[in-house]
Amino acid sequence: MQDTKLYQRLLGIHAPWQVDGVDLDVKSVRDGTVTVAVSYDRSVPLQCPECGTDCPGYDTRERRWRHLDTMQFRTILVAQVPRVRCPTHEVRQIEVPWAEEGSRFTALFEMLVIDWLHEASFAAVARRLSMSWDQVAGVQDRAVARGLARRDLTQPKTIGVDETSFKKGHDYVTVVNDLEAPGHVLHVAEGRRQGALDGFFELIGEDSAHQIEQVAMDMWPAYIKSTGRHAPQAQIVFDKFHIAKHLGDAVDKVRRSEHKALTAQGDHRLKKTKYLWLRNPKNMSVSRWRDFADLRKSELKVARAWAIKQMAMSLWGYIKRGWAERMWRRWYQWAIRSRLEPIKRIARMIKAHWEGVMNAVTSPVTNARAEGINRKIQWIKRKACGYRNRERFRMAIYFHLGGLHLYPEKLANAHTES
């Protein structure tokens, strides 16, 4: 009797549902099972779960749910769940108060799985909780579906758009995040074509899209075109991080070409110097910076490319646009006359996207948070040892970075009673 009352409180069960009995089957310490039998008081009228209309019973079917373990014993809840015949919705199964529709786990057990998933991989959670991989994935998918249905897509003013790799090679997903709510992913879409970003603007609606003030992104034509179509009033900001990455790649191309030429002449000065040219000087130790002095002050082509890059990185944070444009024009003239084709290519790219670059130079908006999210996404992928299914990858991003309320709604009842 005490056991039935205990489980009734733990499961948050109210009339007309009641716990009839608790049975312990001890096959072994490891394989023992606790079975909790629950029934519905048939004296209480049945209602259609769709419209709430009193309906005649149709039949009952036995359903089983996994619950939190009792001590070391696996616990299963068993109930004969009535179905009703509704004049409008035909045959429907009535709702149960301890589990979500379509789930074979109680709300409290799903809460446990959700908490575990924040800390460990699918495989580890499945192993620790004696579940299949598909069952764990199902809990995650239901949690994300709940979270997306509950979230309030409040009007974002500043968004960041970035792509992240799904697999090796050119296989990407587009990620949109709210730069005013750090760590909150708003939208994840397959690929990085225009349609991937179009989907986000269509999701929030035309009125909301027209309220967006700034969009931080890479110089990717598809994103630029989508933003211009759906949010023409938004100021496009090409992030400093991406420009630094393009310039860093250009410096490395100059280094590789020059190293090959010098090595043919027996000169090995550039051997093992790749990261000296790419590292931020602020992150160099005093001794490393001193050792680097001879190379960066030399007449090498890569030293000139590095100096051009460093000047570009110093031209950020201007308050007045006029001064910013004046200094960047000087930089452009130096870069375009450098006779270093990789550097000239980046200079032309910046000139082609001049407006967005100047917006970035004079704006505090940065896509650094988006890059932080990208690193977290790569951690999620490594933790799972990669994803074969793109939709599963998308669900994992929402699960960990969507800022969603993931727990089952019926969990509140269980907590109140327990």
Q: Keyphrases for this structure?
A:
418 residues; alpha/beta; Nucleotidyltransferase, domain 5; 3 domains; 5-stranded mixed β-sheet; 12 strands; 20% strand; elongated; disordered C terminus
Task: Describe this structure as you would to a colleague.
The protein is an alpha/beta fold and 418 residues long. It folds into three domains: 147 residues, no CATH class; 118 residues, 2-Layer Sandwich (Nucleotidyltransferase, domain 5), CATH 3.30.420; 121 residues, no CATH class. 47% of the residues lie in helices and 20% in strands. The protein is built from 18 helices and twelve strands. The strands form three sheets. Strands 1, 2, 5, 6 and 7 form a five-stranded mixed sheet that branches. The longest helix has 25 residues. The radius of gyration is 30 Å and the shape is elongated. The protein starts with a helix and ends with a helix.
Topology order in helix (H) and strand (E) letters: HEEEEEEEHHHEEEHHEHEHHHHHHHHHHH
CA distance, first residue to last residue = 17 Å
Average pLDDT taken over every residue: 87
- Helix share of residues? 40-55%
Instruction: Extract low-pLDDT stretches.
Output: 412-418
Radius of gyration: 30 Å
Give the overall shape. elongated
Helix tally equals 18
Could you give the count of β-strands? 12
